[in-house]
Amino acid sequence: MIIAIDGPSASGKGTLAKKLAEHYQLAYLDTGLLYRKVAFDVIEAGEDPANIEATEKAALGLDMSNVEESRLRTPQIAEAASIVAAEPRVRAAILQFQRNFAKNPRGAVLDGRDIGSFVCPDADIKLFVSASAQVRAKRRFLELVAAGFTGSPEDVLNDIEARDARDRNRQAAPLKQVEDAYLLDTSNLDIETAFRTAVEWIDSK
Ligand code: CDP
Q: Which of 33, 59, 126, 177 qualifies as a cystine partner to 116, CB 3.0-4.6 A?
């Protein structure tokens, strides 16, 4: 079974994806982390995330062993990730990695922006997880503060809205809900209720 989960930032898709992977004993891939790592490597190399040659080079050399996740979960890397992710050459370079992961004999859960639409269009289950920008900004703010962030809630909301717009309006594999995806709006749902709703829907399929 392949479960494809897409949605905007801080919609709760990562937490849900992890819980579903555990529940159904499937392998899990957070594809956002791949774009974050490409952005991180570009910045570490002293290059601009908008530089196509530099981003493609980083994507072709992507190495996910020894990833220090906390260094990838900053607002700066999130912003840079959405810049490198708009580049078709970057997306092409890491497409096969994602598709190979999805071929895991145990089955897999992948979350991102284009899993149901592009990476795994034949996934057995497609979920589109969403929530209002205000709710998502509040969740992300609390996560970032716990990790030492000192900015304001408004900064986080502005970042989320800018990234949403970039992810939805880009030419290459934009964020969108595909027709056969089940919409899960988590604005008023806690994680446990979102998880149970998803499991009920998956089991009924
Ligand atoms: O954690 P959050 O949901 O805020 O972001 P993420 O899933 O780590 O993704 C970071 C950025 O990578 C997104 O803003 C997208 O621009 C990009 N991304 C993408 O284009 N396609 C994916 N399948 C996953 C992430």
A: 126
**Whole domain around residue 189: which residue ranges?**
2-204
The span from the CA of 113 to the CA of 119, in Å, is 9
Looking at ligand 1, which atom is closest to the CA of residue 82?
16
- Digit-coded pLDDT (tens) for 173-189: 999 999 999 999 999 99
- The structure tokens 């990833």 sit at 67
pTM: 0.96
Distances in Å between the Cα of 155 and the Cα atoms of 71, 80, 91, 126 are 19, 16, 28, 31
Question: Of all protein residues, whose CA lies closest to atom 7 belonging to ligand 1?
Answer: 32
**pLDDT value at residue 135:** 96
Q: How many structural domains is the chain composed of?
A: 1
Q: How does pLDDT run across 48-97, given as a tens digit for each residue? A: 999 999 999 999 999 999 899 999 999 999 999 999 999 999 999 999 99
Q: Give the residue, out of 6, 30, 31, with the most ligand 1 atoms within 8 A of its beta carbon, to mutate for a pocket test.
A: 31
